[in-house]
Write a structure and sequence with these properties.
By secondary structure, the protein is mainly alpha-helical. It has 13 helices and 3 strands; from the N terminus they run βααββααααααααααα.
Protein backbone atom coordinates (compact mmCIF):
# COMPACT_ATOMS: atom_id res chain seq x y z
CA UNK A 1 0.00 0.00 0.00
CA UNK A 2 1.29 3.45 -0.78
CA UNK A 3 2.03 5.77 2.12
CA UNK A 4 1.95 9.47 2.53
CA UNK A 5 5.34 11.13 2.14
CA UNK A 6 6.93 14.42 2.89
CA UNK A 7 6.26 17.79 1.36
CA UNK A 8 7.98 18.71 -1.87
CA UNK A 9 8.35 21.99 -3.67
CA UNK A 10 5.90 22.83 -6.42
CA UNK A 11 8.63 22.31 -8.98
CA UNK A 12 9.30 18.68 -7.97
CA UNK A 13 7.94 15.79 -10.03
CA UNK A 14 4.40 14.66 -9.24
CA UNK A 15 0.90 15.03 -10.62
CA UNK A 16 -1.98 16.75 -8.88
CA UNK A 17 -5.33 15.06 -8.33
CA UNK A 18 -6.85 16.98 -11.22
CA UNK A 19 -4.07 16.05 -13.60
CA UNK A 20 -4.30 12.37 -12.65
CA UNK A 21 -8.08 12.38 -13.04
CA UNK A 22 -7.75 13.88 -16.51
CA UNK A 23 -4.98 11.51 -17.60
CA UNK A 24 -6.65 8.29 -16.38
CA UNK A 25 -10.28 9.15 -17.01
CA UNK A 26 -11.39 8.88 -13.40
CA UNK A 27 -13.18 11.43 -11.26
CA UNK A 28 -11.51 13.56 -8.65
CA UNK A 29 -14.13 12.29 -6.23
CA UNK A 30 -13.04 8.69 -6.85
CA UNK A 31 -9.38 9.57 -6.26
CA UNK A 32 -10.26 11.31 -3.03
CA UNK A 33 -12.24 8.25 -1.93
CA UNK A 34 -9.44 5.86 -2.79
CA UNK A 35 -7.08 8.09 -0.86
CA UNK A 36 -9.42 8.12 2.15
CA UNK A 37 -9.75 4.30 2.23
CA UNK A 38 -6.04 3.78 1.70
CA UNK A 39 -6.28 2.19 -1.72
CA UNK A 40 -4.21 4.70 -3.71
CA UNK A 41 -2.56 7.44 -1.69
CA UNK A 42 -0.57 10.29 -3.23
CA UNK A 43 2.87 9.99 -1.67
CA UNK A 44 3.80 13.66 -1.78
CA UNK A 45 2.44 17.07 -0.94
CA UNK A 46 3.43 20.26 -2.65
CA UNK A 47 4.56 23.24 -0.61
CA UNK A 48 1.09 24.57 -1.26
CA UNK A 49 -0.45 21.49 0.34
CA UNK A 50 -1.72 19.83 -2.85
CA UNK A 51 -1.68 16.06 -3.16
CA UNK A 52 0.93 14.83 -5.64
CA UNK A 53 1.08 11.38 -7.23
CA UNK A 54 4.49 9.88 -7.94
CA UNK A 55 5.34 7.37 -10.66
CA UNK A 56 4.99 4.60 -8.08
CA UNK A 57 1.55 5.87 -7.07
CA UNK A 58 0.48 5.94 -10.69
CA UNK A 59 1.69 2.39 -11.23
CA UNK A 60 -0.52 1.27 -8.34
CA UNK A 61 -3.39 3.30 -9.74
CA UNK A 62 -3.04 1.48 -13.08
CA UNK A 63 -3.32 -1.85 -11.27
CA UNK A 64 -6.42 -0.67 -9.40
CA UNK A 65 -8.04 0.45 -12.65
CA UNK A 66 -7.23 -2.90 -14.24
CA UNK A 67 -9.02 -4.78 -11.49
CA UNK A 68 -11.91 -2.32 -11.53
CA UNK A 69 -12.24 -2.98 -15.27
CA UNK A 70 -12.47 -6.67 -14.40
CA UNK A 71 -15.26 -5.85 -11.92
CA UNK A 72 -13.28 -6.89 -8.87
CA UNK A 73 -15.12 -5.37 -5.89
CA UNK A 74 -13.36 -2.30 -4.57
CA UNK A 75 -12.96 -3.70 -1.07
CA UNK A 76 -11.12 -6.72 -2.50
CA UNK A 77 -8.61 -4.80 -4.60
CA UNK A 78 -6.40 -3.55 -1.77
CA UNK A 79 -5.89 -7.00 -0.22
CA UNK A 80 -5.41 -8.45 -3.70
CA UNK A 81 -2.57 -6.02 -4.45
CA UNK A 82 -0.87 -6.87 -1.19
CA UNK A 83 -1.52 -10.62 -1.16
CA UNK A 84 1.12 -13.29 -1.80
CA UNK A 85 1.05 -14.80 -5.26
CA UNK A 86 -0.98 -17.89 -4.36
CA UNK A 87 -3.63 -15.89 -2.51
CA UNK A 88 -3.82 -13.38 -5.35
CA UNK A 89 -4.27 -16.18 -7.88
CA UNK A 90 -7.06 -17.73 -5.80
CA UNK A 91 -8.79 -14.35 -5.60
CA UNK A 92 -8.56 -13.90 -9.35
CA UNK A 93 -9.98 -17.36 -9.91
CA UNK A 94 -12.97 -16.47 -7.74
CA UNK A 95 -13.49 -13.31 -9.75
CA UNK A 96 -13.28 -15.31 -12.96
CA UNK A 97 -16.03 -17.61 -11.70
CA UNK A 98 -18.19 -14.63 -10.77
CA UNK A 99 -17.74 -13.18 -14.23
CA UNK A 100 -18.63 -16.49 -15.85
CA UNK A 101 -21.82 -16.67 -13.80
CA UNK A 102 -22.67 -13.09 -14.74
CA UNK A 103 -21.96 -13.84 -18.39
CA UNK A 104 -24.33 -16.80 -18.27
CA UNK A 105 -27.04 -14.67 -16.66
CA UNK A 106 -26.58 -12.04 -19.36
CA UNK A 107 -26.72 -14.73 -22.04
CA UNK A 108 -30.04 -15.97 -20.66
CA UNK A 109 -31.40 -12.44 -20.36
CA UNK A 110 -30.34 -11.70 -23.93
CA UNK A 111 -32.19 -14.79 -25.09
CA UNK A 112 -35.28 -13.77 -23.12
CA UNK A 113 -35.12 -10.29 -24.62
CA UNK A 114 -34.81 -11.68 -28.14
CA UNK A 115 -37.86 -13.88 -27.53
CA UNK A 116 -39.83 -10.89 -26.29
CA UNK A 117 -38.84 -8.82 -29.32
CA UNK A 118 -39.93 -11.61 -31.66
CA UNK A 119 -43.18 -12.14 -29.73
CA UNK A 120 -43.99 -8.43 -30.06
CA UNK A 121 -43.62 -8.90 -33.82
CA UNK A 122 -45.38 -12.19 -34.38
CA UNK A 123 -47.16 -13.54 -31.30
CA UNK A 124 -46.62 -17.22 -30.46
CA UNK A 125 -43.03 -18.32 -31.04
CA UNK A 126 -44.04 -21.42 -32.93
CA UNK A 127 -43.45 -22.59 -36.47
CA UNK A 128 -46.45 -22.76 -38.78
CA UNK A 129 -46.44 -26.55 -38.38
CA UNK A 130 -46.41 -26.24 -34.60
CA UNK A 131 -49.23 -23.69 -34.73
CA UNK A 132 -51.35 -26.05 -36.81
CA UNK A 133 -50.68 -28.89 -34.37
CA UNK A 134 -51.44 -26.76 -31.33
CA UNK A 135 -54.35 -24.61 -32.51
CA UNK A 136 -55.97 -27.01 -34.98
CA UNK A 137 -56.51 -27.16 -38.70
CA UNK A 138 -58.77 -24.09 -38.77
CA UNK A 139 -55.97 -21.91 -37.38
CA UNK A 140 -54.34 -19.50 -39.81
CA UNK A 141 -50.88 -18.07 -38.94
CA UNK A 142 -51.85 -14.90 -40.82
CA UNK A 143 -54.28 -14.13 -37.99
CA UNK A 144 -51.32 -13.14 -35.83
CA UNK A 145 -50.34 -10.44 -38.31
CA UNK A 146 -53.92 -9.21 -38.45
CA UNK A 147 -54.14 -9.07 -34.65
CA UNK A 148 -50.85 -7.17 -34.45
CA UNK A 149 -52.04 -4.69 -37.09
CA UNK A 150 -55.25 -4.09 -35.15
CA UNK A 151 -53.98 -4.15 -31.55
CA UNK A 152 -50.18 -3.90 -31.84
CA UNK A 153 -50.05 -0.50 -30.18
CA UNK A 154 -52.11 -1.47 -27.15
CA UNK A 155 -51.07 -2.47 -23.65
CA UNK A 156 -52.92 -5.75 -24.18
CA UNK A 157 -50.76 -6.69 -27.15
CA UNK A 158 -47.67 -5.97 -25.07
CA UNK A 159 -49.03 -8.20 -22.32
CA UNK A 160 -49.87 -10.91 -24.86
CA UNK A 161 -46.32 -10.72 -26.24
CA UNK A 162 -44.80 -10.94 -22.76
CA UNK A 163 -46.76 -14.13 -22.11
CA UNK A 164 -46.05 -15.52 -25.56
CA UNK A 165 -42.31 -15.04 -25.02
CA UNK A 166 -42.47 -17.40 -22.05
CA UNK A 167 -44.63 -20.10 -23.63
CA UNK A 168 -43.65 -23.14 -25.58
CA UNK A 169 -45.78 -25.51 -27.64
CA UNK A 170 -46.92 -27.38 -24.54
CA UNK A 171 -48.07 -24.21 -22.83
CA UNK A 172 -49.99 -23.07 -25.89
CA UNK A 173 -51.55 -26.52 -26.17
CA UNK A 174 -53.04 -26.08 -22.71
CA UNK A 175 -54.38 -22.64 -23.68
CA UNK A 176 -55.85 -24.03 -26.90
CA UNK A 177 -57.48 -26.96 -25.12
CA UNK A 178 -59.06 -24.60 -22.61
CA UNK A 179 -60.53 -22.55 -25.47
CA UNK A 180 -61.84 -25.68 -27.18
CA UNK A 181 -63.46 -26.79 -23.93
CA UNK A 182 -65.24 -23.45 -23.64
CA UNK A 183 -66.36 -23.67 -27.28
CA UNK A 184 -67.80 -27.12 -26.59
CA UNK A 185 -69.77 -25.79 -23.63
CA UNK A 186 -70.98 -22.82 -25.64
CA UNK A 187 -72.08 -25.10 -28.46
CA UNK A 188 -74.03 -27.28 -26.04
CA UNK A 189 -75.68 -24.25 -24.45
CA UNK A 190 -76.56 -22.77 -27.85
CA UNK A 191 -78.16 -26.02 -28.94
CA UNK A 192 -80.10 -26.08 -25.70
CA UNK A 193 -81.43 -22.56 -26.48
CA UNK A 194 -79.84 -21.11 -23.35
CA UNK A 195 -81.13 -17.57 -22.92
CA UNK A 196 -78.55 -14.75 -22.84
CA UNK A 197 -78.60 -13.17 -19.40
CA UNK A 198 -79.55 -16.39 -17.67
CA UNK A 199 -77.38 -17.73 -14.87
CA UNK A 200 -76.00 -20.46 -17.13
CA UNK A 201 -75.25 -18.03 -19.97
CA UNK A 202 -73.52 -15.57 -17.63
CA UNK A 203 -71.35 -18.37 -16.21
CA UNK A 204 -70.34 -19.37 -19.73
CA UNK A 205 -69.58 -15.75 -20.62
CA UNK A 206 -67.21 -15.61 -17.66
CA UNK A 207 -65.53 -18.84 -18.75
CA UNK A 208 -65.13 -17.39 -22.23
CA UNK A 209 -63.65 -14.17 -20.82
CA UNK A 210 -61.26 -16.22 -18.68
CA UNK A 211 -60.12 -18.10 -21.80
CA UNK A 212 -59.35 -14.78 -23.51
CA UNK A 213 -57.52 -13.64 -20.37
CA UNK A 214 -54.97 -16.37 -21.00
CA UNK A 215 -53.75 -14.05 -23.76
CA UNK A 216 -54.17 -10.73 -21.90
CA UNK A 217 -56.24 -9.45 -19.00
CA UNK A 218 -59.69 -9.00 -20.51
CA UNK A 219 -62.14 -6.64 -18.81
CA UNK A 220 -65.90 -6.85 -19.35
CA UNK A 221 -65.74 -3.78 -21.59
CA UNK A 222 -62.98 -5.37 -23.69
CA UNK A 223 -65.03 -8.56 -23.81
CA UNK A 224 -67.89 -6.60 -25.34
CA UNK A 225 -65.57 -5.00 -27.90
CA UNK A 226 -64.28 -8.41 -28.93
CA UNK A 227 -67.81 -9.82 -29.10
CA UNK A 228 -68.82 -7.05 -31.53
CA UNK A 229 -66.30 -8.45 -33.98
CA UNK A 230 -68.12 -11.78 -33.90
CA UNK A 231 -70.91 -10.24 -35.99
CA UNK A 232 -69.07 -7.42 -37.79
CA UNK A 233 -65.82 -9.08 -38.85
CA UNK A 234 -66.36 -11.79 -41.49
CA UNK A 235 -63.31 -13.72 -40.30
CA UNK A 236 -64.53 -13.95 -36.73
CA UNK A 237 -68.06 -14.77 -37.83
CA UNK A 238 -66.91 -17.56 -40.13
CA UNK A 239 -64.64 -19.04 -37.46
CA UNK A 240 -67.35 -19.22 -34.78
CA UNK A 241 -70.10 -20.33 -37.11
CA UNK A 242 -67.82 -23.13 -38.27
CA UNK A 243 -67.80 -24.29 -34.66
CA UNK A 244 -71.58 -24.09 -34.47
CA UNK A 245 -74.01 -22.44 -36.86
CA UNK A 246 -75.37 -19.22 -35.39
CA UNK A 247 -72.85 -19.28 -32.53
CA UNK A 248 -71.35 -15.89 -33.41
CA UNK A 249 -74.57 -13.90 -33.00
CA UNK A 250 -75.68 -15.80 -29.90
CA UNK A 251 -72.30 -15.49 -28.21
CA UNK A 252 -72.28 -11.73 -28.75
CA UNK A 253 -75.68 -11.54 -27.08
CA UNK A 254 -74.44 -13.67 -24.19
CA UNK A 255 -71.35 -11.51 -23.66
CA UNK A 256 -73.34 -8.27 -23.81
CA UNK A 257 -75.95 -9.51 -21.35
CA UNK A 258 -73.25 -10.60 -18.93
CA UNK A 259 -71.50 -7.24 -19.27
CA UNK A 260 -74.74 -5.44 -18.33
CA UNK A 261 -74.93 -7.50 -15.15
CA UNK A 262 -71.47 -6.17 -14.30
CA UNK A 263 -72.38 -2.54 -14.89
CA UNK A 264 -71.05 -2.22 -18.45
CA UNK A 265 -73.28 -0.76 -21.15
CA UNK A 266 -72.60 -2.72 -24.37
CA UNK A 267 -73.67 0.19 -26.54
CA UNK A 268 -71.00 2.51 -25.13
CA UNK A 269 -68.31 0.05 -24.07
CA UNK A 270 -64.85 0.91 -25.34
CA UNK A 271 -61.44 -0.73 -25.30
CA UNK A 272 -59.89 1.89 -22.99
Amino acid sequence: MTTRGSRRSDSDDGLTVGAVASRFGVTVRALHHWDAVGLVLPSLRSTGGHRLYTASDLARLRRVLLYRELDVPLHEIGPLLEAPAEEAAASLLRQRDRLRERTERLRRKTGDLERLIEARRSGPLLSEREQAEVFGERWRPSWNAGARERWGGTEQWAQYAERAAQRGAGDWKEVSEAVEEVHAKLTEAHRASTVPGSERADALAEEHRAAISAYFDCTHAMHVCIARLYTTDPGFTAFLDAVEGGLATWLREVVEANARSHGVCPETASWD
